[in-house]
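Section 3.1: Structural characterization of target chains.
Under the original work plan, the team committed to producing a structural model for every single-chain target entering the pipeline before any wet-lab resources were allocated. The record below documents one such target. The sequence was received from the expression subgroup and is listed exactly as submitted; it comprises 281 residues.
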Amino acid sequence: MIWHAPVSSRGLTACAVLACAALGATAIPAAAAPSHATTNPITHPELDWAGSQTAKHQSASADASHLTLTPNVAGTPGLDVSSYQGNVNWASVAANGARFAYVKATESTSYTNPYFAQQYNGSYNAGLIRGSYHFATPNTSSGATQADYFVAHGGGWSKDGKTLPGMLDIEWNPYGASCYGLSAAGMVNWILSFSNEYHAKTSRWPVIYTATSWWSQCTGNTGDFSSTNPLALANYNGSPGTMPYKWPYQTIWQYADSGVFPGDQDAFNGDFSRVQALANG
């Protein structure tokens, strides 16, 4: 939807690069790779976070750091982070009032956040209720396949009172066509496939993160997930605004991409007991 000091732009974070395993004596040289091998289309996952594309498509300035948790931004304060923030000072985040956090875990079926352990475990150790999220790329594999990858790489859930259900981040394509080449019906089916598989694996329905304008553009403002999936809504224009199809209200409002916390600024729609209720299922 937190940080030690207000910031107006994100600081670049160096990304760790895994070294390739040493080739054995019988390994096939790289030049002998099958001719049908394809290049991974996910080329900059460290630049894809919840709202990275929203800021590019909404009319308001992406710098909404002047917004604070005032009557215009009511609710329980929280944040979401990705590898872009690197190692987060969670003690400072908690001291500044954050009560919950979402951490990017995965993208497509080829990327895991190299800072995930520090961010996910660190927020927990600082007393925050936290969850993880998956950046969706519906043109690379099925919803069910990506849900499986997410659950296997940090996206699970346990009823410990400190873990939020996983969140599906579905927004404009950072690599090409806004709607990933899917029809409106195809997009709804992809989201449903992810949601159903996540539920089958964890017993929880994932939170769906999106923007109303994206939902209108890419689902045709269809697809009723309101009875199952909590909504995390991105809108940097000073209010949550119009809800996507059938959702009566947002559970989380991501109201700015910079502010008192690192990463994005979020407000949970209710007091802390409602955050706890979502964690407990």
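The longest helix spans residues 184-202.
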